[in-house]
Amino acid sequence: MNLLIFSSILLWIVVIIQIGVIFALARQIGILFERVSPVGAMISDSGPALGDKVPALVLPDLNGSGLTLGAGHKGRSQLVFFLSTSCPICKALLPALKSIRADEAGWLDVVLASDGREALHRRLIETEALQDFPYVLSSELGMSFRVSKLPFAVLIDQHGKVRAKGLVNSREQLESLFAASETGIPSYQAAVAGLNS
């Protein structure tokens, strides 16, 4: 009888250790997925194609009097970043956008875009100190670019043409839009596919 009790206790200890090991492995896999995120923005085939001219759009700006997007803009490139007030990845990328805006101020304007209730966006502007960014609230803009997942970014050149676009989850993916614009290769995935063919 004592042997049966001892073996039962020993088996429970082994099960508890296995649960701990499985939890630790699952955590490590999660960390690995964060570190090995896809390189480059994930291109979307919907919406305006690369090279298409964006018609001049005059949109209301929550931080100013108005904003011209696309062909009618003042000869500077624009990075349009689509975000949501409830998107944690969008909020995590805001410091990167502030840095990009400062680093690329000579040629690039960073525009934040969303839709929804204005009060929620005003609260986000206040809590994240986004007063210096043009902030467009327009569901039509998201529909014209066919934005279905967030965060999404579109790089429009100084002539109003779409140079790069895609789903972005990290600073590296944001910066890949600039590399795509400079090289003419739309994404890392397209470059790899070109090497393999």
TrEMBL record:
Residues 48-183 form the Thioredoxin domain. Keywords: Membrane, Transmembrane, Transmembrane helix. Coiled coil: none annotated. InterPro entries: Redoxin (IPR013740), Thioredoxin_domain (IPR013766). The chain crosses the membrane at residues 6-26. The keyword Membrane applies. This is Redoxin family protein. It comes from Paracoccus marinaquae.
